[in-house]
Structures are given as structure tokens and as C-alpha cells.
Amino acid sequence: MEIYEIEGGHKLEGEINVTGAKNAVLGIIPATLLCSDVFTIENVPNINDVVKYKKILKKLGVTFERDGDVLTINSKGLCDYDCSPYEDEISEMRASYYLIGALLGRYKKAIVPLPGGCSIGDRPIDLHLKGFRALGAKIENVHGAISVEAEKLKGARIYLDFVSVGATINIMLAAVLAEGETVIENAAKEPHVVDIANFLNHMGANIKGAGTDTIKIRGVKKLHGCDYNVIPDQIATGTYMIAAALTDVDVLIKNAIPKHMEALTSKLREMGVEVINEGFGIRVRGKRPFKSADVKTLPYPGFPTDLQQPIAILMMLADGVSIIEESIFENRFKYIEELRRMGADATVKDRTCVIQGTDQLSGTQVRATDLRAGAAMVLAGLVADGFTRVSNIHYIDRGYEDFDKNLRSLGAVIERKEV
Ligand code: UD1
Asked: CA–CA separation, 264 vs 302, rounded Å?
């Protein structure tokens, strides 16, 4: 088993480059199935979720070549819409649900085992299916796989009862080649939703309104390959901003988009942290003592649920009481129990976590309970007394490229170890 061993108390300083957005790339890769062509995608992070997605698509006949952060995808060999033989790989990741939308769009049928992903609550895909049904697809659950089929897909008005990133993107994938106009109402507005819409438009799709709550997709007859540059990762940017804030000094996060970080930036400023936007970079200067603050997670442009765990570490070291209300996922506080072992004073009731700030966390062994929780535990280790050992780091590998290397480049003492 591999762990991260962190010696706390070292100040971070310097510059760091943020890689491309995980949740954008995980939509862009399956989007290439919508036609038979070659794509050159720049700024693709080298993370395990991308590796896993490539593995699934290779089995379907797609080929990949990586050169640094450039991924060339050739979907000319795509030969199947039935993914049921690849259940093991598909059930390991959440974003595998995009195979349904992409293959339905391309072949008007798909068989895809149910997705997996971090265990942070009940994660149904009923809204995705509602969208496919509205486009004319018949849906069945066959031995744990979703089977969708349509004679033809026809544009429709689809209202999402809950703002869902996954459903918004999946419906866009299915609708770009449908006949007529599809309107998604109460659509998600996350930066990666916009990036995937932009990518589809580069492929020849006609999507308008991405980034607002009404997205209009006018179906086109054909799509084609393209070159594309993926936006920087909002959550990785936020994680490094919080790391910088925690360790008290001055870090410049380069290749970041300040506009995407407004909810976090304003919360950090409220807590007494200095955040300076510098074009395509964000400079963060932590200043203790931190003030307490309250956070409610919300769809974009609200505070992202994926940064709830990292910011909790800052709250654990703030003066006074902070409250987190998690409104997206009902089970996203499992990590709190681990952090209590490091001296955090926090209680959880239903979807609310009350944190009483403390002067110092204390290093010990903790177990990452999911991707963002793992990152939060590493951040806790950076400022805890002595050594923190974080296990289950395969979760962190799913979403952060070279997490330890990046932190080391800023002066952190962190090692990846086999135990
Ligand atoms: C995506 C992100 C994840 C992020 C989340 C919220 C990917 C691969 N993952 O996850 O990192 O934490 O957005 O920003 O991009 N819901 C339903 N029915 C559905 C779909 C969703 O009830 O059909 C509910 C979910 O249970 C959840 C809420 O809607 O309570 C939001 O989920 P959604 O935005 O769809 O998240 P994911 O696509 O799973």
C-alpha cells in the first residue's frame, strides 16, 4: 500500500501551475465517440480517472497517444455500443455515465453498466435518464447495466428537477446529433459544463447558453474532430489556494482562472486571507489568525461541494466557530471522524458540520475516505505537529496530478511511500 507521509510545519512559498480540469476532460474524452475522427486535446491532466477512461475506450476501439499534456484521440476505430463486458472498469468511476449519452448520440443505442465514483451519498442518474427519455429513448435496466435505445432522437424541453452537472453534460452529449432543438432548463453552470459545450461546438455542434441555466442545443447532422485546450482545474486551483492560505506565506497559482474561484476567494478573504488576482494567476498570502466563517455548498457560482473538505481544514484552525452546510451530497462528512484523530473539534449532524477552531492539529495516521477528503487530509498534515501519514491515496491519484511533487516544489515535506 502507498501512503503520503507529511512532516508538518514547513512554510510554502513560490509558484505552481494548475493542470487541466478533471471534470471537463472526463466529459471531453467520451464526447470524441460522437464521430469518427482525430482530436488533439491540450492541457489534459495525467490523473488516474483519465487513465481509466482511456482503458475503457481502448476496449471499444479508440486509440490514444500522449505527449506531455497533449492527448491525441483517434475514434475512427470505435466499433461498439455495448460496454457491458467492461463492468469492472466502468463501475470504478462516476464519469463513465457519459458513455450512455455519447453512444446514444452516435449509435442511437448504448448498453452501459451503472457508474461508481466516490461514496459521498446517494448518486442516482434518474435525471440523466429523464433527459434521454424526453429525447425519445427507451430505457431498461438489464443485469445492472443501463440499456438505452431510440429509433431516432428528437429535440425536447427538459427541466432538471435538481441542478446536476452530470445530467446537464450527458443530455448535451445525447442531443447534439438529435433532430431539432433541445432546451435544458435549470441546467448546471459549472465551468466544466461550459468547457464541454465549447468543445462540442468545436466539433461542429450548435450549443448556446452554456454557463446560464438554459442551454439550447440545435441538432446537427455531423460532427468532426478538432484541436482543443482544456480549462484549468477549478478544484485543484482551490486546493492549492487553501494550502497556501494555511501555511502562512506567499504562493502564486499560475494558469488559474480567477473568475472560476470567486466563491472561494471571497470566503478566504472573509477568513482574513489575502487573495490577489493577477490575470491568469492567483496570489494567496495566508495570515494567522484566521477568522471563522460559514459555508453552504451550492451549484456554481456558489461554493463548490468539492472544496468543502479542503476549506474545513482552515476552519479547524480559525478563531471561533465555523459552520458548513452541505447541500449537494448527503454523506460528505465521513472525513471529519479521521480529522478528529488529528485534534479537530468538529461535530456532524445530518448535513451540517460545526467546527470549533483550535490552535494546532496533531499529526497521526489517517485514512482518505474519498478524493477531496484525501486532499484535505494532506493539507491538514502540512500544518499539523509532527508526522501525518495518509493512506488510501489512490483516491487522491484519481484527481490530482503530481500532488506531492507540486507541494514539494513549494517547500512542503511530503513523501510517497510504500508500506
Ligand atoms: C459532478 C462531479 C463531482 C462534483 C459534482 C457537484 C464529475 C465527474 N463529477 O458529480 O466532482 O462533486 O458534480 O459539483 O463531473 N442527482 C440526482 N439525480 C441525478 C443526478 C444528480 O438526484 O440524476 C443529485 C445528486 O445525488 C446530487 C446532486 O444531484 O445530490 C448533484 O449531483 P451532480 O451535479 O449530478 O453530480 P455528479 O455528476 O455526480
From this structure: 9
Q: What is the pTM of this model?
A: 0.97
pLDDT at 118: 65
Pick the CATH number of 22-220 from 3.40.630.30, 1.10.486.10, 3.40.50.720, 3.65.10.10: 3.65.10.10
Confidence at residue 121, expressed as pLDDT on a 0 to 100 scale? 64
Q: Is the pLDDT of residue 299 over 90?
A: yes
Residue from 228, 127, 118, 123 nearest 174 by CA: 127
Give 128's Cβ-side CA count (13 Å radius).
26
For residue 219, the SS3 value is coil
**Residues designated as active site:** 118
Closest CA to ligand 1's atom 11: 306
**Domains 2-18+232-418 and 22-220 equal at CATH topology level:** yes
Instruction: Give me ligand 1 centre to Cα 164, in Å.
Output: 5
Position 287 confidence tier, pLDDT thresholds 50, 70, 90: confident
Which CATH class name applies to 2-18+232-418?
alpha beta
